[in-house]
Amino acid sequence: MDKLEHIFALQQGFQDKLKQERGLAEIPMEQWLQKQTLAMISELAELLEEVNFKWWKNPHPLDRGNIHEELSDILHFFVSMCIEAGMSADDLYRMYVGKNRENIRRQDGLSEKPGYAVQPQNEGAKP
Hints:
mainly alpha; Helix Hairpins; 4 helices; about 65% helix; extended
């Protein structure tokens, strides 16, 4: 089992336990995804706090441990949503690889979608 498959298996076990012990088994997928999205937004806000996004406030030293913890929390909710939507680790991998390939094509101006290609910088122009 690779690492991503292991993460999915761990999350599936946790999710099954949570649904059973908290009486959440009957929540429809749409509501589960809504709740998980809100939870992820909350974790993203916690990550923002860690990386000094408030330009009007004196910055605090970055705590990589806290940053890593928030990123891990975000991954928990993301994987939970993948599982609930019927997406496996293999599905996610394939989707990611395909989208990554398309993103590179877009940046290289090779995509059918216009507007992504990097434009040459005018050396004499001011920003």
